[in-house]
Amino acid sequence: MSTSESGPRDTAIPPDAPQAKPRVHPVDEVLPAPRLTILGLQHLFIMYAGAIAVPFVVGGALKLSAATIALLVNADLLVAGVATLIQAVGVGKLFGVRLPVVAGATFTVIPPMITIAAKFGGEKGLPYVYGAMLCSGVFGLLIARPFAKVIRFFPPLVAGIVITVIGLSLIGPAAAMIAGHDTEDPHYGQVSHIMVAFAVVFGILILARTLRGFLGQIAPLLAITVGAVLALFTHSWSGSTRTHSWDLSGVGHADWLGLAAPFHFGAPKFDAAAVISMCIVMLVTYTESTADMLAVAEMTGKELTGADITRGLAADGLSALLGGSMNSFPDTLFAENVGLVQMTGVRSRWVTAVTGGFLVVMGVIPKVGAFVAAVPEFVVGGAALVMFATVTAVGIQTLKKAEFQGNHNLLIVATSLGLSLLPAYAMDRFGNSIFFEKFPSWAQIVFGSPITIAVVVAFSLNLVFNHLGGGSTIPVPRSVAASGAVSGAVPGTSPAISPMFAARPAAGSDAATGLALQRSPAASPLP
Fold first, then answer.
1. How far is CA 1 from CA 7, 11, 438, in A?
2. 397: how many CB neighbours lie within 10 A of its CB?
3. Considering only CA atoms, which of 176, 174, 165 is closest in space to residue 421?
4. In this structure, are residues 54 and 107 in contact, taking their beta carbons and an 8 Å threshold?
5. In whole angstroms, what is the distance from residue 360 CA to residue 353 CA?
6. Lowest-pLDDT range, 45-49, 94-98, 240-244, 333-337?
7. Residue 433, strand partner residues
8. Helices (H) and strands (E) in the chain, counts
9. N or C: which terminal CB in the chain sees fewer CB atoms within 10 Å?
10. Which of these, 127, 143, 138, lies nearest to 271 by C-alpha position?
């Protein structure tokens, strides 16, 4: 019998035939070792300046010795490395969001640490600081799961606002990295430093446009390298002494091995007010990390579940426990590295796991850390500027998924942006926010962070306008409806009526978001 008469031949795969491997999500893809190394270094250079800023600021404010500040820096890098490894790789069902993220010391901890330590005698007050930090870590672990449950109230409207604010609020710190941290310093805004930073920015653009493949992915690292070389030829004048931008003296003085014993400053001590302020810091840290996890999930196309958020937040809580015992600081996810993920398109979490490994090495080998620290800050600032702005662009991209016709969502965005950015634009000469400086210390901790304000305001306004009472709609002018500017008819209604005015959940709500995603492009009122 012919094939045409009997139908197709049996094409079953023999049992011993090799089976096709299931496709691995780009987030879980393990890249070749050389690429992992270089891409991990790129993340390291982007985040390093921010990672060591916290111990320097705290140490300077408490008038600690140079050796003690160096100890804080090493401990900070070590804990940040461990936290980054946990976040990227994960520890069972307990810790780690398993996304390409990098953890580092949160700036939110600076005011309470300085206040607590100063209250109890400067360096002698650090045991109270670390005692409070240990309690905040336990608190963080206890509330990680309940906190993660609010994720369903973060539709694109709220998530987009928060992500946008993250990027916009960091433009100021990027400017400080480039021009200087004291506007009254005679060397502030040095032309050569700004020009090198701009060269890094344009270098990223040119290299990203002209290079392809792997070289295009490491355009920021290549641009930083070029900027570092250019910095060799820049200098600042201090009296009659010319000081080059590169200062490698710290490398010679740094030890090859250096790891302080746990509780270096003494056994932890506990004070109720100190514990409460550190727990507030943990809540602020959780809001920042949640926003960053949402942003990275958006960039990588990885579905983020409540369990993922819980593990990610639990890793932040664990970092506070590690910081409290290892003379370090609680960690949060760094927004500059979030921007790098979007810019390079490299989504593998194993890249940032390598970054975590580098941080651990730098934490136990101070000489390596000293060399990386010698890279001029204005060079890294040029790349950081692009990364921070990229986060803003991702927020705007997320906002495009929200509906703005027939609702109050535009008012929600405007109010949230305006209120949240107030502390970011009211600064003293050193770049510290002073907008809420007359408020109680606990209020300064909460409201001093634009990200926290954005989360609270956007979350609350979305509930009021789009959830409570079923939401409300703004009538579309008759002329607009008649012209067909708002298109997409619902069966059983007039063709001129937009689907958003049919009986359905309020725009901006979770159910409405899901419905909007289910509609075909032709039926969507969005362009």
1. 10, 18, 94
2. 16
3. 165
4. yes
5. 11
6. 240-244
7. 427
8. 23, 4
9. C
10. 127
Closest by CA to 456, choosing from 286, 246, 233, 256, is 286
Name the more confident of 281 and 368. Answer: 281
pLDDT of the residue at 269: 92
For the segment 253-287, what is each residue's pLDDT rounded down to a tens digit? 667 777 778 898 999 999 888 888 888 888 878 88
Q: What is the pTM of this model?
A: 0.68
Q: How confident is the model at residue 151 (pLDDT cuts 50, 70, 90)?
A: confident
Residue 379 and residue 197 in contact, taking contact as beta carbons nearer than 8 Å: yes
Residue 183 C-alpha from the chain's centroid: 26
Beta bridge pairs of residue 427: 433
CA pair distance 257, 364, nearest whole angstrom? 6
How many angstroms separate the CA atoms of 154 and 395, rounded?
A: 13
At residue 131, does pLDDT exceed 90?
Answer: yes
**Angstrom distance (rounded) from CA 488 to CA 486:** 7
Q: Which of 410, 458, 508, 380 is nearest to 163 (CA)?
A: 458
Q: Which of 137, 149, 124 is nearest to 64 (CA)?
A: 124
Q: DSSP code of 401? A: T
Rounded CA separation 481/491 (Å): 17
Residue 347's φ and ψ, nearest 5 degrees, are -110, 0
